[in-house]
């Protein structure tokens, strides 16, 4: 099976015929874990949303008061079998972040190289003061609990990527497409953004190949100290 990669695509839509191609061959007819993993996801996300609702309200108020901009940020990501979805986050960047980002890359060759290699910036000028704290504690990711209930994501799985990032996965792309992306995953408990892209892709492939419900529980338990340590949280 050949999927063609291009820019942003509508939810669950086919990709343009003239987009550059990459060969990936996901073998599964349903995401890894089946009904057991999906059932766990629904229960976990439902309980977490109820328990964390006061924290959601506090974060929303802080973001709104800080600059008056939108509370949530939606970004198109690719999930199981190339299905695209709007990945939800609390907004951590300036409202005019696109202009700030492009200007920064144009004036800083080092930043441009860092972005091309890792799709991350250690010193990102777009991030607000409130956003920096949210990112350090991974609180900006909490709205993805809604993505989990919708079936776009799982509690544990590969890090959700944008369409053009699949090229960086190389031969590991097929494994990525056999699972729902995760709120947390092997990459997050192994150094987060301090882990190279090649290692991240390998971790995701190993996770898919050796998945078990027990391994999901272990990763969830390891996520707590990983978040508290804030290591690699830029």
What does this protein structure show overall?
The protein has 234 residues and is mainly α. The chain has a domain of 163 residues. Helix content is 46%, strand content 11%. It has ten helices and six strands, in the order ββααββααααβααβαα. A two-stranded antiparallel ribbon has the order 1-2. Strands 3-4 form a two-stranded antiparallel sheet. A two-stranded parallel sheet has the order 5-6. Strand 3 and strand 4 form a beta hairpin. Helix 1 crosses helix 6. The longest helix is centred in the first third of the chain and has 18 residues. The radius of gyration is 17 Å and the shape is globular. The termini are far apart. The N terminus is likely disordered.
Low-confidence parts: 1-21
- Measured as a percent range, the helix fraction is 40-55%
- The number of strands is 6
Q: What does the radius of gyration come to?
A: 17 Å
Shape: globular
Strand order of the largest sheet: 1-2
* Element pattern in H and E: EEHHEEHHHHEHHEHH
Average pLDDT: 83
In short:
By secondary structure, the chain is mainly alpha-helical. The chain has helices at residues 34-51, 53-67, 97-107, 109-118, 129-136, 144-150, 166-169, 173-176, 197-209, 213-229; strands at residues 2-4, 21-23, 72-78, 84-90, 154-156, 182-184.
């Amino acid at each position: 099976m050949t999927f063609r990669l291009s820019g942003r695509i509508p939810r669950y839509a086919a990709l343009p015929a003239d987009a550059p191609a990459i060969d990936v061959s996901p073998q599964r007819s349903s995401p890894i874990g089946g009904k057991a993993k999906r059932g766990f996801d629904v229960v976990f996300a439902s309980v977490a949303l109820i328990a964390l609702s006061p924290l959601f309200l506090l974060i929303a108020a802080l973001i709104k008061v800080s600059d008056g901009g939108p509370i949530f940020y939606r970004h198109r990501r690719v999930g199981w079998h190339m299905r695209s979805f709007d990945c939800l986050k609390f907004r951590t960047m300036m409202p005019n972040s696109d202009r700030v980002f492009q200007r920064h890359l144009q004036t800083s060759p080092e930043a441009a190289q860092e972005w091309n290699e890792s799709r991350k910036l250690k010193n990102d000028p777009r991030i607000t003061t409130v956003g920096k704290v949210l990112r350090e504690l991974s609180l900006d990711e909490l709205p993805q609990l809604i993505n989990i209930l919708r079936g776009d994501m799982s509690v544990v799985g590969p890090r959700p990527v944008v369409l053009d990032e699949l090229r960086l996965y190389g031969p590991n792309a097929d494994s990525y497409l056999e699972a729902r992306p995760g709120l947390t995953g092997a990459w997050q408990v192994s150094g987060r953004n301090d882990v190279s892209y090649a290692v991240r892709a390998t971790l995701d492939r190993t996770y898919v190949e050796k998945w078990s419900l027990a391994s999901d529980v272990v990763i969830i338990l390891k996520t707590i100290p990983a978040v508290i340590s804030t290591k690699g949280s830029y």
